[in-house]
Specification:
about 25% helix
């Protein structure tokens, strides 16, 4: 048959098949090339997010006071933390520079709630609470320190973070009401005398017991036991100044 007699409709299926085969071949080549040249998948390590057991209260209302006239002008802080799952509360008071050769005092009043309470010994409790100081050479004192809050378990230690200092840690636990006093007194150079720590804690007072009358009764009894830094003369003054209490500040 003469070529002129062929219709374009007769050629259309053949052309369509050829075009489809061409496009399919290109697609197959593209897939193979992409699979050959693709870079290995990047897998980033997933860093677990640490959630603290304690929540900081933004605008704390102080329930306790630590007024030391010898340290007038020294920086002080007051923080309140509540347990994220339980009902415990920590009031944390600090006085002095946290990283300096001058004295630094921290007192934590912990009122446990429904959360589990660490029942480790005094040395382990100080090591955990003062972890930021990286305490070393922790040495428990076998003789409790008398104070207005009763006998304190004492732990001597040194700091290995920041300015080297000698510290005297203390722990006092009550069963009724449930309350724990934990803290430390640090200074550069000499060891902290035991009487200096007892004198500093002589200034810790209660401002408001809230709905906990047993806490009020505990601090009222502590005031009756107050030694006024060894002078025991409440009519003279409310705890007279103690020259050795902030001696590093006076020397500076």
């Amino acid at each position: 048959m003469h070529p002129a007699l062929y219709s374009w409709r007769d050629e259309l299926p053949a052309r369509f098949v050829r075009a489809l085969a061409y496009v399919g071949g290109l697609a197959a080549l593209s897939i193979l090339a992409a699979d050959f040249f693709q870079s290995p998948p990047v897998t980033n390590a997933i860093t677990p997010v640490h959630h603290s057991d304690w929540i900081e209260i933004e605008r704390p209302f102080p329930a306790f006071d630590l007024s030391i006239p010898e340290a007038a002008g020294q920086p002080s802080t007051y923080a309140i933390r509540r347990h994220a799952e339980g009902t415990g509360r920590k009031d944390i008071l600090t006085l002095g520079e946290p990283d300096a050769a001058t004295p630094f005092l921290q007192v934590e009043i912990y009122r446990p709630g429904s959360e589990a309470v660490n029942s480790a010994g005094a040395a382990a409790e100080i090591a955990g609470n003062a972890a930021g100081l990286r305490p070393v050479a922790l040495t428990p004192d076998h003789e409790p320190l008398p104070s207005k809050f009763g006998p304190l378990a004492i732990v001597n230690f040194q700091t290995s973070a920041g300015t080297p200092r000698h510290c005297l840690g203390f722990v006092r636990a009550y069963d009724d009401p449930q309350l724990r006093l934990v803290g430390w007194f640090c200074q550069g150079g000499d060891f902290v005398p035991r009487g200096t720590l007892a004198c500093a804690l002589d200034r810790l007072t209660l401002l408001a017991a809230g709905s906990e009358p047993k806490i009020g009764a505990l601090f009222a009894q502590a005031e009756l036991n107050r030694s006024y830094c060894g002078q025991r003369e409440p009519l003279l003054a409310a705890t007279p100044k103690h020259r050795a209490l902030w001696k590093a500040t006076e020397a500076r």
